Amino acid sequence: MLLENRVAVITGSANGMGKAMALKFASEGCNIVVNDIQIEKAQEVAETIRAGGRDAIAVRADVSNSEDIKSLIHQAVEKFGRIEILVTNAGAAGGADLEHSDEEEWDRVLALNLKGAFMLCKAVVPHMKKQRYGKIIMLSSMGAVRPSISVLAYHAAKSGIIGLMKNLAFELAPFGIYVNCIVPGPIETPFWDPLSAGMSEEKKQAFFAALGRKEVPLGRMGQPEEIAGPALFFASELSSYVTGQVLCVAGGQPGITQSMTFISSPESEGFGK
Amino acid sequence: MGDVLKGKVAFVTGAAAKRGMGRAVAVRLAKEGADVMVTDVFASPKSAWAGDEGWKGLEDVVKEIEAVGRKAASAVANVVNLAECEAAVKDTIDKLGRIDILVNCAGTRGPVGVNIVDGDVKDWEALFDVNAIGTMVISKAVGKELIRQNRGGKIVHIASAAGKLPCPGSAAYAASKWAVIGITQALAMELAPYKINVNSINPGFFATNLRDDDATMHSKKKGITVEEFRKDEYKMLSDMVPLKRMGTVDDIANLIFFLVTDQSEYLTGVDINITGGTLMH
Ligand SMILES: NC(=O)c1ccc[n+]([C@@H]2O[C@H](COP(=O)([O-])OP(=O)(O)OC[C@H]3O[C@@H](n4cnc5c(N)ncnc54)[C@H](O)[C@@H]3O)[C@@H](O)[C@H]2O)c1
Ligand SMILES: NC(=O)c1ccc[n+]([C@@H]2O[C@H](COP(=O)([O-])OP(=O)(O)OC[C@H]3O[C@@H](n4cnc5c(N)ncnc54)[C@H](O)[C@@H]3O)[C@@H](O)[C@H]2O)c1
C-alpha cells in the first residue's frame, strides 16, 4: 500500500476527479477528509470509504470562503491529528470572453479557483511544517496553457495556480513539503454539466466521443480515475524526488513545453457563450 | 514484493552499470512482478567507485532479477545498431514470450565543459549517435513489436534536466537530450492509436556511473582521489537543489514504475522533471 495510514484532505471530492482520488487514496490505505459544498454526496463518498475499511469524514466548506477553510482544517486536525496530503481540487469553469466579462464574475471565479488554493495552503502548511513532511497537489487546466475557448477568469485563475505551485514548491522544499500540479485534459465528469445541460444521455456521449476524437491523440476523453493515478503518484513516495512540476495528463495533447498551438478555433462553442 | 506488473515483460537498455539507473529500474520492475530483458553495449561496464571491482554487469543483474523470483534474459546490444536491437527483441520474445514495456536508460555524456567554438564535430556525432539516434533505433525495434502484438504498451526514455537548461560547455549533451524530448513527443502521437504510452523523464543530479570519466579526469588534474572529488562535487550540486540532496537511482525507479503501470493510462507525450525542484519548466 502506497499511503498506509496517511491523512488526506481533498477539496471538491463529492464528484468527478476529487471523488476518484478519494477512493483511490483510500484503497491505498489513506484516511480521507472529503470536502464539498454538496454535503450529501460528500457523505456518500465518506460512507463508501468507511465501508471499505478506512476512516473518512465529510465536511461542508466553500473553498472560496476563508472562515469555511479554517473550520475545515480545524475539523480535519481535530479528527485525525495531522494532515500529510492536501489536494486543492475544488473548482469550476466560469467567465467569458473580455467583452462579456465583468468584475463581479472575475472576483467570484478567482476566489473559487485560485484564492481557495492559497488559503488552503495557508491553513494546512503549518501542520505540515511541524511534521517536516507534506504533499500538496493542485489542479490547473489545459486551457490555462492553451485555450480552446475564451473563459478569461477561469484561465487566469488556473494559470495563477501554476505560479502559486512553483513558488510554494521552492519555498517549502527545505521543510520536506512537495508541491506539484496536475493539468488535466478533457475528463468526463460533472464539470461539463453546464455545457451538456439539456442534452439526452445519448447526445452527451456522442458529444464527449466527438470531443475526444477531435482533440486528443489517444482519441478519447479521460476518466476521473486516470487523474487519480497521477495524483497517487504525487501523494506517495513514488514522487520521492519530484517537486515543483506541472504534469499534463491529457492523452497526448501538446503540453507545457510546446509553444501555444490551437486545437480548435476560438469561435468554437464553449462556456460563457 | 508486488505483483502489479505480473505477466508483463520489460526491456531495459543501459542496464549493466553497477550504479546506473538501468540496473535499478530493471530490478525494481522485477520486484513489482515483471520478467525483464536487460541489455547494454558493454556486458560489464567499468566503474570508478571503490569496491565495485568484482561487478559482473549484465550477469549480476540477471541474478538479482532471478533472486526476486522473476525470469530474466540479457543481451549485449548497442542502441545505435538496429540489427543488434532487433536481435535482442527477438531474443526477448523467444525467452520471455512478449514485450510490454521499454525503458531506455542507455545514454552517455561525452566531454563536458567544451564550448561550441572549441567543439569537435566527431564528439558531437558520437554523442548524438547514442542519445538521439539510439533513442530512435530502440524505439523502432521495440515499437514495431509492440504494434505487432497489439496489446498496447509503455515506453519511457531518459532525457535530462541538462537538456532543458543548458549551460556553457554542455551544448552537445543538451542538444542530444532535447532530441530525446522531441522524439518522445512525436512517437507518443504516432503510437497513441495503438494504446502505447510514450513519455520521457529529465533527471537532475544523480549519483551514478555517468560522471565516472569526468570524476577520474578532474581528480587527476587536481591531485586528489576520485572519492574526494566526488564528495566536493556532490556537496556543491546538492546545495543547488531545493530538496538539498542528490537524486538516487531509487527515486528514478519510483517514477518509472509509475510510468509503466495502469496508473498513468492517460499520460502520454510528456517529459517529467525529476530534479528535487531544481527545474520547474
Ligand atoms: N473535467 C475536466 O475536463 C477538467 C479539465 C481541466 C481542469 N479541471 C479541474 O479539475 C478539478 C476537478 O474538476 P472535476 O472535473 O472533477 O469537476 P466536478 O464538477 O466533477 O467536481 C468538482 C467538485 O467541486 C465542488 N465544488 C465546486 N465549488 C466548490 C466550492 N466553492 N467549495 C467546495 N467545493 C466546491 C463541486 O461541488 C464538485 O463536487 C477542478 O478544479 C476543475 O477546474 C477539470
Ligand atoms: N546521472 C545523472 O546525473 C543523469 C542526469 C540526467 C540524465 N541522465 C541520463 O540517464 C540515463 C542513464 O544514465 P546513468 O546515470 O544511469 O549512467 P550510467 O553511465 O551509470 O549508465 C548508462 C548505461 O548505458 C550504457 N550505454 C552507453 N552507451 C550505450 C549504447 N550505445 N548502447 C547501449 N548501452 C549503452 C552504459 O554502458 C551504461 O551501462 C542516460 O541517458 C543519462 O544521460 C543521467
The helicity of chain B comes to: 40-55%
> Could you say what the CATH architecture of chain A is?
3-Layer(aba) Sandwich
The largest sheet of chain A has its strands arranged as: 3-2-1-4-5-6-7
* SS element count, helices of chain A: 9
Name the average pLDDT of chain B: 96
Largest interface here, residues on each chain?
A-B, 40 and 41 residues
Ends apart, CA distance between termini of chain A: 46 Å
What's the tally of helices of chain B? 9
Strand order of the main beta sheet of chain B, please? 3-2-1-4-5-6-7
E-strand count of chain A: 7
CATH class annotation of chain A: Alpha Beta
Structure in words:
- The complex is a heterodimer of chains A (273) and B (281).
- Chain A has one domain (7-189, 223-251): 3-Layer(aba) Sandwich (Rossmann fold), CATH 3.40.50.
- In chain A, 45% of the residues lie in helices and 14% in strands.
- Chain A contains 9 helices and 7 strands; from the N terminus they run βαβαβαβαβααβαααβ.
- In chain A, helix 4 (103-131) links the parallel strand 4 (85-88) and strand 5 (134-139).
- Mean pLDDT of chain A is 93; it is low at 258-273.
- Chain B has 281 residues and is an alpha/beta fold.
- Chain B has 9 helices and 7 strands; from the N terminus they run E-H-E-H-E-H-E-H-E-H-H-E-H-H-H-E.
- Chain B has a 7-stranded parallel β-sheet, with helices on both faces.
- In chain B, strand 4 (101-104), helix 4 (121-149) and strand 5 form a beta-alpha-beta unit.
- The longest helix of chain B has 29 residues, at 121-149.
- In chain B, 52% of the residues are buried.
- The mean pLDDT of chain B is 96.
- At the A-B interface, helix 6, helix 9 and strand 7 of A face helix 6, helix 9 and strand 7 of B.
- The structure holds nicotinamide-adenine-dinucleotide (2 copies).
